[in-house]
Amino acid sequence: MKIILTHEVTGLGTAGDVVDVKDGYARNYLVPRGFAIRWTKGGEKDVAQIRRARKIHEIATIEQANEIKAKLEGVKVRMPVRSGDAGRLFGSVTPADVASAIKDAGGPEVDKRRVELGAPIKTLGSHQVSVRLHAEVAAKLDVEVVAA
């Protein structure tokens, strides 16, 4: 099935790309979550608009991405969250929570869609988080999850 990506999907493409994927993947995952729309001749006109919006939010060069990476890796991120007695959280830490904590810690503003958690964060302690800044540049930072 031919689709137009509306968001960046790791391993598939960026917003505005027209890609061919299996029918079930598009119908059951990408389209319902808003990551893609079905390709039509009329939808092809939307590609230019999606690409313009992407250019506004995109980090243009690798040099800019490396500068932001250096700033991110120098930031100490501590997240106070509610937890139980055994150190398990009530719920989990989301990419939006991490992006907000980075900004609160004095780091650069990061889009929540660029934050990648290896696995859901459901315990207290230090966790490794990756922030995809550019296709070739990703910043790794430690997030300290502490009891509130």
UniProtKB/TrEMBL annotation:
PROSITE patterns: RIBOSOMAL_L9. GO terms for cellular component: ribosome. Gene3D superfamilies: Ribosomal protein L9, C-terminal domain (3.10.430.100), Ribosomal protein L9, N-terminal domain (3.40.5.10). It comes from the Bacteria. Keywords: Ribonucleoprotein, Ribosomal protein, RNA-binding, rRNA-binding. InterPro entries: Ribosomal_bL9, Ribosomal_bL9/RNase_H1_N, Ribosomal_bL9_bac/chp, Ribosomal_bL9_C, Ribosomal_bL9_C_sf, Ribosomal_bL9_N, Ribosomal_bL9_N_sf. Residues 13-40 form the Ribosomal protein L9 domain. Pfam families: Ribosomal_L9_C, Ribosomal_L9_N. Signal peptide: none annotated. Binds to the 23S rRNA. PANTHER family: 50S RIBOSOMAL PROTEIN L9. Belongs to the bacterial ribosomal protein bL9 family. This is Large ribosomal subunit protein bL9. It comes from Streptomyces enissocaesilis.
